[in-house]
Amino acid sequence: MQEKLLILKNATHEGPGLLEQLLTERRIEADLADLSQGDPVPDPTRYRALVVLGGPQSVNDPTPAMREELRQIGRALEAAVPYLGICLGMQALVHAAGGRVVACPRKETGFFDEEGSPFEMELTKEGKTDPLFRGLGERFRVFQLHGETVEPAPGTLQVGTADGCPQQAIRVGERAWGLQCHFELTRGMLESWTGIDPDLRAMGRDRVLREFDAFQEEYRRTGIGLLSNFLDIAGFPTEP
Q: Is 181 in the active site?
């Protein structure tokens, strides 16, 4: 096994963000495969941990690329490779574990819902003692960008919930987590997304960035804490 992290990108513009900063600070080596550019999926069982990022695809897409990604995620689960899936990466985890991915009653986009209330994730009873959220609070403002949600298989543990799409954070077994919402954003990433994603573009770049700027320190603190916890759980060194 390599003492490296494997990162799978499902869209070139959806990068690791805050995670990349942590890897640099802790001098953790990572291999990155951009599946949207045709990169093959490396064998995840050769790595210390696996992170799967978001993208505009659906796990229900009957493409060879998506089938191969799901197959490799299934191998990682069988081998108990520590796993963190974000947005599409969470949906892929649920699918690989035997659950379903279905349409949301309504899309969730940005930092606020249609009534103007901030999107928030609240930890469940199990989530409050989950190691992924160690040292963090019990409720977090989050960024959403998805039109699908999940119906987890029996045995999947829900560790985070919300009013709109309830399945916001799940755990499969003891070492695999999925987050429907985004904790990895940097301002630069978000600025790029507002020019690419049609739903964000419709909201307006200035509005989205202004909403992010209003609480970015809190957002960054939560994201760094959560991602650091995952790297710790996976057994990566805490000091360079």
A: no
Question: How many beta carbons lie within 10 A of that of residue 235, not counting itself?
Answer: 10
**Helices 18-26, 216-233: inter-axial angle, 10-degree rounding:** 50
87 is annotated as an active-site residue: yes
Q: What is the dihedral of CA 144, 42, 75, 98, to 10 degrees?
A: 30
Q: Which domains does the chain have, with CATH numbers?
A: 5-233 (3.40.50.880)
Q: What would the pLDDT profile of 196-218 be if each residue is shown by its tens digit? A: 999 999 999 999 999 999 999 99
Which of 69, 108, 148, 184 is an active site residue? Answer: 184
87, 108, 148, 181: which is the annotated catalytic residue? 87
Is 184 one of the catalytic residues? yes
Cβ neighbors of 48 (< 8 A, separation 6 or more) are 1, 2, 3, 4, 5, 81, 82, 234, 235, 236
Asked if residue 104 lies in contact with residue 147, where contact means CB atoms within 8 angstroms, the answer is yes
pTM of the model: 0.96
Residue of 95, 108, 146, 182 marked catalytic: 182
Q: What is the pLDDT of residues 104-130, one digit of tens each?
A: 988 999 999 989 999 999 999 999 999
